[in-house]
Amino acid sequence: MIELKSINKSFQKGKKQIKVLSDFDINIKENSFSIIKGQSGCGKSTLLFTMGGLLKPDSGEVKLLGQDLYQLNQSSRRVFTAKTIGFVFQSYHLLSYLSVRDNILVQQRLSYIQLDLDLIDDMINELHLQDRLNHKPGELSAGEKQRVALVRSLAANPKLILADEPTGNLDPENSEIVLSFLKRFQQKGGTIAMVSHSSDADQMADQIIHLKK
Amino acid sequence: MMFLKEILHRKLSFIFTLAGVLAAVTLVVSFYTLTKATWNETRLLTRDMGFNLRIIPTQTNMDEFWINGYSENIMPEQFLQRLVDQNSVNYAHLTASLHKQISWENQKVILSGISPDEIEPGGARKSKMIFAIPSGTVILGFEVANKASIQRGDSIQVLNTAYLVDKILAETGSLDDIRIYFDLNELQTLLNMPGMINEIMALNCMCSTKGDNPLETLRTELGNIIPEAKVVMNSTIAVARERQRKMGDKYFSMLVPLFLIICMLWVAISILNNVNHRLQEIGILRALGFGSGRIAIIFFVRAALAGFLGAILGYYLGTEIAKSFGPDIFKVAPNSVKELPVLLFWSVLIAPILACVSASIPITWALSRDPAVTLKQD
Fold this sequence. Notes:
The complex is a heterodimer of chains A (about 210) and B (about 375).
Chain A: E1 2-13, E2 16-28, E3 33-38, H1 44-51, E4 59-64, E5 67-68, H2 74-84, E6 85-89, H3 100-104, H4 117-126, H5 142-154, E7 160-164, H6 172-187, E8 191-195, E9 207-211
Helix pairs in contact in A: 5-6
Chain B: H1 2-9, H2 11-48, E1 53-57, H3 62-68, E2 75-76, H4 79-84, E3 91-104, E4 107-114, E5 137-140, H5 142-147, E6 155-158, E7 161-168, E8 179-183, H6 184-190, E9 196-197, E10 199-204, H7 214-225, E11 229-233, H8 235-277, H9 279-287, H10 292-329, H11 341-368, H12 371-376
Parallel strand pairs in B: 4-8, 5-7
Antiparallel strand pairs in B: 1-10, 1-11, 2-9, 3-4, 3-10, 5-8, 6-7
């Protein structure tokens, strides 16, 4: 599904150069559930954003469905990743001024994205959001916000979900809802790469990748 | 309509941006409206100060001219027509006149014949600076009437012709106090000088050129049109006139750009504040597949809307401010502050553009931020 070869990525902090990923290789198979673990600052999120086409590595190759992402120009990469990848973040990143419904359907504004409205309705019902559709994110609980973010990430029917600590701000009950939902996505043929600190999802994972500082 | 929902959600932020545009348009509109009114008031004030140009025959002996108060030489009245025939010339309020000093009732007086028609080059007609003298009547200067104990309505004899005194002028402290004013045609007949004048009175308008030396410009211009005549200028009046005209222009040209720069900075800061709060939103929109252009439009439409609303509100507010303060500022022409609808057109056209220009730097900065960095800032 996604293959990273000889990835190098470093950041400049003042005069100091911090190497985050060094000659990093990884292969995530289609229809798998991979968990990326490691200490804070070891480059988990950097890896996730690099896989998602949002952060160009200094060197190396990122192949998604056989396509080298960073060989594409910015516009083609944007279209390709928007159709293929769904993102879920620890702090949800919902648009505060839009209702739940508008947040879920925000990609409807992009001509090249076809949203599956039936699938979206099913997910809304499954995650018990039907009574919250006209609410703004500020009126939702943390668990509800993350459920909205989950539906949004799957609205365009992507093949891959990249999740950056999606249960980091949630109580155990809501963490369970989120993880179960992701597991069902995998069972329907989807692929998941998830950054996590906790071991709650370890038993669901097909592979656990440990990053070292 | 994402931008409308965002505006309603962050009303204060939008109001702050709108206030910047509103302040700019209000200040420019009120300042321009008042400056325009200043021009009108200056025109009226200087017009009331009298003619400042005297076009006289070339051969006039200037010693005698200044001692007598008029030229002893004469020229045909048709010379005036040559100036009138010009499309663009720096002379206005052209008035033909004839003057002659005589002894009358044991005093020296100047008989002054004034044309009833004030003519403008190019045929334009302006409000009159002179008073009309009805046929068969005269107007007396203060000293003439005072010395001969003449009242308004009295009949007097001048060069064996009877005239009714139509008016007695107030004391001016100038040669005008010893004048007897006639209709030009009547005085030409009385002096047996048909079709002849010895002066064309005028006002310099500097309407076709804006030179540093107006007198030189006027002399060159007149030399080309009426080589048989020369012009003298009352520089006190002219300087006052120019000074007041330039003062309005100077303040407008200095203060308006300053206002605009301050207000554009204000708008830029308010937009910077808005985009700074929305960096993560920009990051997630990118992650969802929105391109830079698409995201930029959301912000530019917001800025343009602030510009548009600010232009309309600013126009009406600026006009109202000018109208409110106008009568207190302009005592001579309190009604000279007039609404200038053309400013609404220009405000609506320019304010959204300037708002977008102000917004362009913060928007470009925000779009250049790496979405991975902004999304990681949890």
